[in-house]
Amino acid sequence: MSVMDRIKADVEGHPIVLYMKGTPQFPMCGFSSRAVQALKSAGAGELFTVNVLEDPEVRANLPRYSNWPTFPQLFINGELIGGCDIVSELHESGELARIVSEAGKA
């Protein structure tokens, strides 16, 4: 399976996918840490994460797949939501909780 197929399978196979540096328990950058905290406080229980530091192929190809240059990258129901700034803005507005609560119900 090509790396692009793997990314597509992950994004389409899980309601909430976060490509991040590190893990939710041990984030390796502040942006990834903030995205995880926003998702947790928005009620995201089922969170599928990919540590791009452990998977150089995904790290190199995800920006091509998503057309988004930086990490973390959040996908919900197969759609790119965005990076840390967008996740934080959605969380502050209350919108992230709504999106998270509807994830997987489509």
Characterize the structure shown.
Residues 16-81 form the Glutaredoxin domain. InterPro entries: Glutaredoxin, GRX_PICOT-like, Monothiol_GRX, Monothiol_GRX-rel, Thioredoxin-like_sf. Pfam families: Glutaredoxin (PF00462). Belongs to the glutaredoxin family. Monothiol subfamily. This protein is α+β, with helices and mostly antiparallel strands and 106 residues long. Helices cover 49% and strands 16% of the residues. The chain has a single domain (3-102), classed as Glutaredoxin (3-Layer(aba) Sandwich). It is built from five helices and four strands; from the N terminus they run H-E-H-E-H-E-E-H-H. Strands 2-1-3-4 form a four-stranded mixed sheet. Helix 1 (3-13) crosses helix 3 (56-66) and helix 2 runs parallel beside helix 4 (84-93). The mean pLDDT is 96.
Detail the topology: elements first, then pairings:
Layout: H1 3-13, E1 16-20, H2 30-41, E2 48-51, H3 56-66, E3 73-76, E4 79-82, H4 84-93, H5 95-102
Parallel strand pairs: 1-2
Antiparallel strand pairs: 1-3, 3-4
What's a quick, concise take on this entry?
With 106 residues, this protein is an alpha+beta fold. It has helices at 3-13, 30-41, 56-66, 84-93, 95-102, and strands spanning 16-20, 48-51, 73-76, 79-82. 31% of the residues are buried.
